[in-house]
Amino acid sequence: MADDGMLLNFQLGTEPLKRQVKFTGGSWRDRRRAAKSARKASGAPAQPVNDDAEPAERAPKRQRVDGEDATPRSFKGRTSFEGWESAKGSGHGGHGGHDSGRGSRQVVSRLFSSNPAQKTAVEEDAKEWKAPQPTNAPLSDVANFGTLSLASRLVDELTKMNLERPTAIQKKVIPHLLSGSGDAFVQAETGSGKTFSYLLPMLHRVLQLSRDGKQIHRDSGVFGIIVSPTRELAKQTHTVLEQLIRPFPWLVSTAISGGESKKAEKSRIRKGVNFLVATPGRLADHIDNTKALTLSTVRWLILDEGDRLMDLGFEEDLKKTIDALKRVEVAQKTLNGTPLDLLPDRRVTVLCSATMKMNVQKLGEMSLADATFLAAEKDLDEPNHDQGVLKAPAQLHQLYTIVPAKLRLVTLISYLRSVFSRRGRTMKVIIFVSCADSVDFHYELLKDPRKPELPESLSKDAELISKTVSKAAYLTSPASPEVVLHRMHGSLAQAVRTATIKSFSACKQPSVLVTTDVSSRGLDIPSVELVIEYDPAFSFSDHIHRVGRTARAGRAGDAVLFLLPGSEEGYIELLKESTPPTPQSYESILERGLMTKLEFPVETSATPANGKSYHGKAEAMQLHLEQRILNDTRQLELARNGFKSHIRAYATHIKDERQHFDITELHLGHTAKSFGLREPPGGIGAGIERKAKSKNRTGRDKPAAAKGDGAARGDVDGVPDQKSTHDLFKRKSMMLMSAGADEFNIG
């Protein structure tokens, strides 16, 4: 063949050939950044890039799910959602200089970049916190309850319950109710023993009526009515009362509350009871409709947790009960002729409350007459009307951690892993979240699908708690190979709620309760060493009651509050008015919690990053959780509902504290990641829009957010304008704030 005159000269050089790395996934800016980092690491000269040109291979857009609208990812107009990038061979993990993702060939979540700057400097104290002298412990200068002139058989029963000495509030209240007939306003910190302070004097004076051959029986009439704001607190008060009257079988108590059989309650009242524990609504119902309920013998009306009674809207029911008692003349003898001369000569009303808020003062004006103010503090002789709440117990160690929204979920899991990593250190943990949908999401996510069977110790109520108690995944450790998970909120049936609380109280293994504020008041659950406020309380008084589930009766306890960087950091100054909290960095939580080997209960393409830094482990866990949720339709629905209810709940913080919890400051994309979602679902304000439309039919002005035209929504050819959408969500947030808690279920 003739030579055509062409010469091909290939000069390869002595260096080995380098394989061209191809970056896929994420946005084109992320791919550009990763390619530039790879070239810089290899020492290759930078290639000129045409900024106007777009890469030929762009990742396909995610198809929109039916019914999903184009919701912006931030109330502040930040529409750029932190993407996902491929780390194939580049070692670029997207976490600010850490090389935990080097060599990984899976998609790595950028958890540690683009987070809001933290305003508060966190300087963790290396010294171990030492609890001061408890403020709600039994008094050391009092020998026993016998010094308060209580009946010896009552004192013996208290000794069997391991109660030997009274607390400060009991020392003040019991003598007042034993000897006098005046009303009382009782104010004391949570866990100080208010329940015994009013139960013991009532029982003592009723027991004295059985003399000279006369005997008090169940048909002698109702002597005391205790009104509790929640069913759980009513059940607990009744349980304590039952323990006290166990040696006296002729005395009978009962509890009536919503969710129970009204017919069965009427039957018990007809047979006769001496002490009635009730919720306000059911009590008002029986006063109207149960003829067997006679009020002439009632000598004590106890309004427990008065601030909560008013907060929950029971004012009309309480007024009905108080007015009914005022209309009935006080009987001097029982139906069988036993004189009641040893009881107070008038009806005594005792109002117990931790606060002196305006609604509590209103309840006091409605129910009390010439009341004596009784408080535990020696120097507090008069009610402080400017005082919002009492301080938390001094021996309660309060901590706070400022966690970026994207890292909340993995930080919560890491914290629980760390507290259960020391054998016997923590037995029971209560996690408070804002709404029932969030409870359901976190319960389903943290439970172990591989172990559906209940622990053997809980098999008695297996049918009732089959959907509220399970074994936990992610939280176990060599020190705690099995952790029992519980869930609790107000949307559960009453029988299920009662069985769940009973299970959590009786559980002998390390256990966790995920709950709403339905469990924040009055419940005395043994061995609760830690309270986690994953979502801050809607008011500071609710915060005090939440953390009061631990450090009770002089015992020590810990409480941890999760806050977001930014406006929520101002809440720390409010915390300092109670007990100065201790800061704790989320980085140290992640480092301690992810030290032990990770195990995932469900197989996904993300694998545990054991052997890497805690940054890599946290990103692997977040990726696994997101993939697990995406692969499970039910989990995905729970995550979306939990996210939307959480956003609605966030708008209902009380007005005085809303400056710290500004819904317009929330980054929806970051918050969605805390629910294992890669982007925020739409329809957050749908319920509010419907409510606004219903108001428009009554003649009110129609808000722009509720209109259906494109101009109001800021839509141009189906694409939402950034400024208009920001204004829309601001209007929705204002409607959420004014709508209150009826737009979501806080339990």
UniProtKB/TrEMBL annotation:
Can you tell me which residues the record assigns to a coiled coil? none
UniProt keywords (A-Z) are:
ATP-binding, Helicase, Hydrolase, Nucleotide-binding, Nucleus, Ribosome biogenesis, RNA-binding, rRNA processing
- SMART domains the UniProt entry points to: DEXDc (SM00487), DUF4217 (SM01178), HELICc (SM00490)
**Is the keyword Transmembrane helix in the record?**
no
Query: What's the protein name?
Result: ATP-dependent RNA helicase
The cellular location(s) given in this protein's UniProt record come to: Nucleus, Nucleolus
Which PANTHER family did the record assign? Answer: RNA HELICASE (PTHR24031)
Q: Where is this motif: Q motif?
A: 143-171
Q: Where is the composition biased (Basic residues)?
A: 30-39
Q: Which organism is it from?
A: Hapsidospora chrysogenum (strain ATCC 11550 / CBS 779.69 / DSM 880 / IAM 14645 / JCM 23072 / IMI 49137) (Acremonium chrysogenum)
RNA-binding recorded as keyword: yes
Q: Supply the InterPro entries for this chain.
A: DEAD/DEAH_box_helicase_dom, Helicase_ATP-bd, Helicase_C-like, P-loop_NTPase, RNA_helicase_DEAD_Q_motif, SPB4-like_CTE
The domain-related comment in the record is: The Q motif is unique to and characteristic of the DEAD box family of RNA helicases and controls ATP binding and hydrolysis.
Q: Where is the Helicase ATP-binding domain?
A: 175-374
Q: What SUPFAM superfamilies does the database record attribute to this sequence?
A: P-loop containing nucleoside triphosphate hydrolases
Primary residence:
nucleus
Q: Which domain of life is it from?
A: Eukaryota
Assigned EC number: 3.6.4.13
Q: Enzyme class, one word?
A: hydrolase
In terms of PROSITE patterns, this protein maps to:
HELICASE_ATP_BIND_1, HELICASE_CTER, Q_MOTIF
Q: Which family does it belong to?
A: Belongs to the DEAD box helicase family.
Q: Which reaction does it catalyse?
A: ATP + H2O = ADP + phosphate + H(+)
An example GO biological process term is: endonucleolytic cleavage in ITS1 upstream of 5.8S rRNA from tricistronic rRNA transcript (SSU-rRNA, 5.8S rRNA, LSU-rRNA)
| UniProt-annotated stretches for the region Disordered | 1-138, 674-726
Tell me the function of this protein. RNA helicase.
Spans of biased composition, class Basic and acidic residues?
Answer: 55-71, 121-130, 698-716
How is this protein annotated for GO cellular component? nucleolus
